[in-house]
Amino acid sequence: MLAYRYILTPDDNGTFLVTFPDIPEAVAVGEDEASAGIEAADGLICALEGYFADRREVPLPSGNDGRQVVVLPALETAKVLLLNEMLAQNVKKAEMARRLDVHMPQIDRLLDLRHNTKIDFLEKAAGKLGKRLNISFS
């Protein structure tokens, strides 16, 4: 799963600003370190949604060196990797719908980070790009 490192910066009003070196659009604020960590996850997802909306490649984490991280759940990780692969192969949503033999709303949901897509549909989408979805326990 993708783990994005974040930095906490104390603000002059007693709150903490959360920023992500790999995703500069992602920011959040928390009243304390614990709440900042919780808000970090939502700030990251909101920023990633912007990448999806703009059909831009999502930068992958550069490493976390033991600091604070937001770990994307498996489903969101798979969707980020799927989007990046579609962009790398220049496969548009309409082409993916054709390959999967589905209607466009299903592709919109497939590329929606907040939609609970079935894993077998993601696996099928990966296959249509010549890739395999790998899952492991660690």
Automatic annotation (TrEMBL):
This is Antitoxin HicB. InterPro entries: Lambda_DNA-bd_dom_sf, TTHA1013/TTHA0281-like. SUPFAM superfamilies: lambda repressor-like DNA-binding domains (SSF47413), TTHA1013/TTHA0281-like (SSF143100). Gene3D superfamilies: 3.30.160.250. It comes from Neisseria musculi. One of its GO terms (molecular function) is DNA binding. Transmembrane segments: none annotated.
